[in-house]
Amino acid sequence: MTGSAYSQVTSSPYSMFGLGTPEEQSSGFSKGMGGTGIGFMSDQYINMQNPASYSGLDSLLSIFEVGVFGKYTRFSTIKENQSLVNGNLKYILMGFRISKRLSTSFGFTPYSSIGYNINSTSVLGGSVQSFDKEYSGEGGVNQVYLGGSLKIFKNLSAGVNAYYLFGNVTHSEASSALAYSLKDITYVSNITFRYGLNYHFDVKSSNFCIGLIYSNGKALNTSNVTTVTTNTGTTELKNRTHNYSIPQDFGAGLSFRKGYFHAGVDFERSIWKDIKFENPLIQGRTSNRISLGVEFPSLGLNKGTSRMMFYRFGAEYKGSPYIIQGTPVNYYGVTMGAGIPLKGVVSVVNVSLELGQNGIRTKDLFRENFVTLHLDFALRALWFQKQKYM
Amino acid sequence: MKSKGEGKWLRKFLSFTKSFIVLSVILGSEALTNLSCTKSGEFTVGKDFIDAETNVAIVDTFKTDVSTIFLDSVRSSQTGLGYVGFYRDTVLGSINCESYFDLKYSEFTAPGDRASFDSASFIFTYSKASYGDTTSAISIEIHQLSSMIAVYTDGYLYNTSQISYSPVAVGRKTFYPNPNSADTLLKIPVNGFGEELFTLIKNGDERLSSAELFNDYIKGFVLIPDSTQGNSVIGLKADNNHVLLKIYYHFEDVGPVEKEISINMGDAAHQFNRVRSDFSGTPLDGIKTSHRVSSVNTYNRAYMQGLVGLVPKIQFPTLQNLFLSSQWKILRSELIAAPVANSFDVFKLPTKMYIYDTNKSNVILNILTDSKNVPLVATFNYDNLYNEDTRYTYDISNFINAEISDMFFDYNHALAIGLSESGLKSSLDRLIVECKNPPVKLRVFYLSY
């Protein structure tokens, strides 16, 4: 049996757990390098993975980046295959240097997304009959952040992103046959922080950069609105609560640069273990992420111009944040990308293609294979500088 | 230098913000218009680990108290159907049906002195509705009424209405009814009465000169069964065109040319059936009108019969228990009633059963309707193979939900199952409801969360 669905933010049936599917915090260049970015400090792009990286922003450049994605996912269980196409805005980021020591970035990006639509059947208690039931979920957590980075010494920077998390976790159940529906909306919000350090040093003509990040875990503030609708009307249910938390997270990254050649590795650990999932089948666990990536220019490693193209390759492994009845839903992916310079308002388009796999096919579980096209439009300073000299 | 620097940053910030907003709007709206088409097909992946928040269960353990109401009276006039006959069985005792009507006046033209009376007959047409053993001969008498038929102030007559009639029959016939034959007419000779009327017509008698005088002279007729012959009730069409009095005559000097005078049935509002029942020796022996007898006292049965005025009443003594829990809703409520096995050989099961609400006084209030205000009809399941699943199922969700909406269930606000409003007054259809094995069930689809 094969089916397909198109929907807006619909991501995955796995997004029914917790706050939904956690979104990658990588952007632009990093998308083509397996999401590697903790140890990078770029003067060309905003690297929100490590807030200390903003110190690398060129004093003459102000950067504005917009990311969008389109994703094709194929879900397969042992018995069936289904596919889905979705896409959306991924982030809007800005960054610039305020003074010699201080740089800033702010923007909007999702923290997690929920989108699923599952047709199922349910047993009619006290009988041998069953009825059709549709489950759906939507929402997710968005974040707006304001970050700052301070160059403490020539080679050492420290940064922080302050996030305001807001959004909702919405699960719905409905049966058209029995003419009822339940909609359970939990509005979530809170302020969290991500701290970062960046230290770079030269060894002969090569440059190395070490990055460290840390986010504290936190429970989110919640308020619930659950309604049940039947033929006789809609009732709001009182005193329902769902608790959601974000995990403690730390990571380290190392990057190497020689001329225009870049390479890097990331290691990140998220402590989902302490986070309770309401679904009794789900248990949080410690999740590790490992990624590596390279970037090199089209014209040879040392003959750089502002109009050259960059190629990027990367690979990523991300351990499941939870286990479902003992089985983790791990992610593996490879990426390739290019940074294409343009003339005009948009100075660079970063294109990357991610081939990924999530989960495994077992008796009860399913695998997601997906191809994601990421597009990142970077607007650089020249546009703004023109205005300045008008 | 410092202030110049600050101005530069401010300009930079403002232009950033402007472009941020413009681009956000463009990209945001594009994302929405291009990607927001949601089409969820048969997407089932992931169903195995849904943590459902709702459950639906069928609860059919609510007790039902079933009884039989003997209605005070049943409206029986203006139905276009006349019933005559006597039927007796061990289930509900005997039913005696008498059919009343009057004649329509029209100006009579005297046929002249040479006209000579031949015969006179009432002519009736069978309706399809007959009950009992119609293969045995029955005997019917026709009597002239001694008082005029007068309706009650509400314009109707009832199964209990009485009109006095002459003890002497004007006609009588013993015959094998043939109710299923479309073209067979029932003729009852009334020669004596016919000749008398013919003479009056011939003489231009004053008593036939106006409708008032005519109806005062011929007040009406009643068909009366002979309870000692046969065991059936036959249905006759009772309207102006199907009830006729015909007087046949000929002219002496013209030869054998038969002539006739035809008089039609009169006011449709005056046509009614009187139905008397005698429950002696049955479980309902002693039941009083407007009262009810619990099925516990009638061998776990409840009775319905149209013109007799028997209606099963159903009450829900334990539904109040619903309110013990608060996290629930009723999605659907069904009432399921099955007929007593082998109880519908003589009286075929009605295929269309309706439902009414009733009160403590055992008065039928209103017919229950669905959400479109159409009378609620039971889903009839006829198991002609094993005869086990024959049952009537009513969707009484609206009634139950309205009843519980104030968090109180009124035991006395009960249900009564019966024929349609017209069927109740125009048929003798019978249903005997099984109350124990299986009991009358209230099946509630119960949503909990």
For the biggest sheet of chain B, the summary is: 8 strands, antiparallel
Q: Work out the number of β strands of chain A.
A: 23
Fraction in beta strands of chain B:
35-45%
Question: Order of strands across the biggest sheet of chain A?
Answer: 3-4-5-6-7-8-9-14-15-17-18-21-22-23
Task: Explain this structure.
The complex is a heterodimer of chains A (390) and B (449). Chain A has one domain (3-286). Helices cover 3% and strands 62% of the residues of chain A. Chain A has helices at residues 28-31, 381-389, and strands at 2-6, 21-22, 62-76, 81-97, 102-123, 130-151, 156-175, 180-203, 206-215, 218-219, 221-230, 233-237, 245-246, 248-258, 261-271, 282-284, 286-297, 310-318, 322-324, 327-328, 331-341, 348-358, 367-379. In chain A, strand 21 (331-341) and strand 22 form a beta hairpin. Mean pLDDT of chain A is 88; it is low at 1-9 and 383-390. Chain B is elongated. Chain B folds into two domains: 63-71 and 284-317 and 334-440; 81-270, no CATH class. Chain B is α+β, with helices and mostly antiparallel strands. Chain B contains five helices and 25 strands. The longest helix of chain B has 34 residues, at 2-35. Classes of the chains: A mainly beta (390), B alpha+beta (449). At the A-B interface, strand 1, strand 3, strand 4, strand 5 and strand 6 of A face helix 1, strand 1, strand 18 and strand 25 of B.
Descriptive key words:
heterodimer; A: 390 residues; mainly beta; 14-stranded antiparallel beta barrel; three-stranded antiparallel β-sheet; 23 strands; 62% strand; disordered C terminus; B: 449 residues; alpha+beta; 2 domains; 5 helices; 15% helix; 37% strand
